[in-house]
Amino acid sequence: MTDLTTTILGRIRDVPDYPRPGVVFKDITPLLGDPAAFRAVIDALAEDLDVDKIVGIEARGFILAAPVAYRSGAGFVPVRKKGKLPAEALEASYDLEYGSAVIEVHRDAFAPGDRVLIVDDVLATGGTAQAAVELVSRAGADVVGVSVLMELAFLKGRNRLNGVDVRALVVI
Ligand SMILES: O=P(O)(O)OC[C@H]1O[C@H](OP(=O)(O)OP(=O)(O)O)[C@H](O)[C@@H]1O
Ligand SMILES: Nc1ncnc2[nH]cnc12
């Protein structure tokens, strides 16, 4: 196990039966509150990136994606839950481990052919990431990958992202 893996695994808290009975919620707040661990995660996610834009998915995705954008010299684009973006937006609906939702991105968020990395904290069923990939593509940009802090492999989210380069700092 690498030092980074140990650092991450030691700072993710399992919260049983949140937000619904039967779900084990992976709480990243202990990791975020540890400055060395937070920095190590951002540095790892930003390593060797050559992209124009980083997309962050509301809300926890923002926490990781914005510093990755800053660190890698890319722009930041928010994908938000429906109704939060002020200008004309494209929308996609999806199911996730404990519910369903609609996300949006501004129609003019990207230049044609922008190289885009989508960053989030957790890949679970892959519903959220799949919807984000669809939105970015419909907005005219190229998705070069999806990077997450943590992949919950038993939910097989990777299978929904055929043809997309999916990277996870830890796989649980
Ligand atoms: O792979 P999936 O099954 O789609 O699940 C992963 C998504 O679930 C969580 O977001 P959530 O919708 O709970 O929103 P939050 O970031 O606002 O807490 C997480 O931050 C991912 O975006
Ligand atoms: N079990 C889980 N813990 C944290 N975030 C999630 N998003 C989807 N499933 C999750």
From TrEMBL:
Keywords of the record: Cytoplasm, Glycosyltransferase, Purine salvage, Transferase
Presence of keyword tRNA processing: no
Record-annotated Phosphoribosyltransferase domain positions: 35-150
Pathways involved: Purine metabolism; AMP biosynthesis via salvage pathway; AMP from adenine: step 1/1
GO MF terms, alphabetically ordered: adenine phosphoribosyltransferase activity
Subcellular location, record wording: Cytoplasm
InterPro entries noted in UniProt: Ade_phspho_trans (IPR005764), PRTase-like (IPR029057), PRTase_dom (IPR000836), UPRTase/APRTase (IPR050054)
Known EC number: 2.4.2.7
EC class of the enzyme, as a word: transferase
Tree of life domain: Bacteria
Catalytic activity, as annotated: AMP + diphosphate = 5-phospho-alpha-D-ribose 1-diphosphate + adenine
Keyword Glycosyltransferase assigned: yes
Gene3D superfamilies associated with the record: 3.40.50.2020
Subunit structure: Homodimer.
Record family assignment: Belongs to the purine/pyrimidine phosphoribosyltransferase family.
Entry-linked PANTHER family: ADENINE PHOSPHORIBOSYLTRANSFERASE
Protein task: Catalyzes a salvage reaction resulting in the formation of AMP, that is energically less costly than de novo synthesis.
Record-given protein name: Adenine phosphoribosyltransferase
Species annotation: Sphaerisporangium corydalis
Species classification: Bacteria, Bacillati, Actinomycetota, Actinomycetes, Streptosporangiales
